[in-house]
Amino acid sequence: MTMAFRKDTDQVVERGVGEIAPMPTGRLRYKVVDEAALLLAYESHLRLLEDRQKATVDTYTSHVKGFCRWLAETHPSVMLSDVTKLQVRAFLLQEANRGLKPCTRSTELFALRSFYKFLIAEGLSDDNPAALVTLPSPVRPRVEFYSDPEADAIIEWAAAQPGVRWQVGRVMLLTFRFCGLRANELVTLSTSEVDLDARRISLVGKGPQGSRGPYSSRSGHCASRVPGRCAAEAPGVGVPFR
Questions:
Q1: Crossing angle of helices 54-74 and 102-121, rounded to 10°
Q2: Cβ-based neighbour number of residue 166 at 10 Å
Q3: How far is Cα 220 from Cα 201, in angstroms, rounded to an integer?
């Protein structure tokens, strides 16, 4: 797909086979912008200027691509800089009809707001229609916490299981409980991020800034006793300290 930006005096022609046809947009400095190049520029903007994490960049660009496809199919004569809040709402309604959850639709809206901020900064749009759209706050699932006795029972059960796999599992559970890590931080933890002597974990968590946290002496004692062959003998459990 090609996204075109034209001056008010440009003639609008129909799209032919193998032909790039400018479509009406509004008072913009550029005539034709290739979609792939524009999305690549947006991705670079997220990574370099907003310092977004890769997962966020991938999610936002995926949602923006989905919106561009929807716009081309349902409103082929409307360009990005002509989009109104009504069309943004129509897109989100279609996503709801497809079965997307409120949290996902909320992320789509955040992605479109970010994309239009980028277009405005680049002089490719005058307005941010997504900023005029609001959605109800998604209902967050209730988080149930294990009590201390329940957590102890889980760890004791893991300790009683035979084999290297559950030696690893016990270390993971102890680290998860006493070190305050998120689940994704725990399963991707490497040996270079763990200092058993200083009882400290250094890692990059959710966000661009590094963080450090204390490492439980109980977890460290158990980790030091886990054989080095764990990675080979306990596949599929998110081996700690790879």
A1: 90
A2: 18
A3: 11
Positive/negative CA dihedral, 178, 181, 184, 189 = negative
**Residue 211: burial class (beta carbons within 10 Å; 0-12, 13-18, 19+):** middle
3-class SS of residue 214 = strand
- 148-233 shares the fold of 2-132: no
pLDDT digits (tens, 9 = 90+) for 19-39: 434 333 333 344 446 778 889
pTM recorded for the entire structure: 0.54
Residue 142 phi/psi, 5-degree rounding, is -70, 135
CA atoms within 13 A on the CB side of 25: 24
Domain spans in the chain, listed from the N-terminal domain onward = 2-132, 148-233
133, 89 in Cβ contact below 8 A? Answer: yes
Query: In this structure, what DSSP letter does residue 12 have?
Result: P
Domain 2-132 carries which CATH code? 1.10.150.130
What CATH number does the domain located at 148-233 have?
Answer: 1.10.443.10
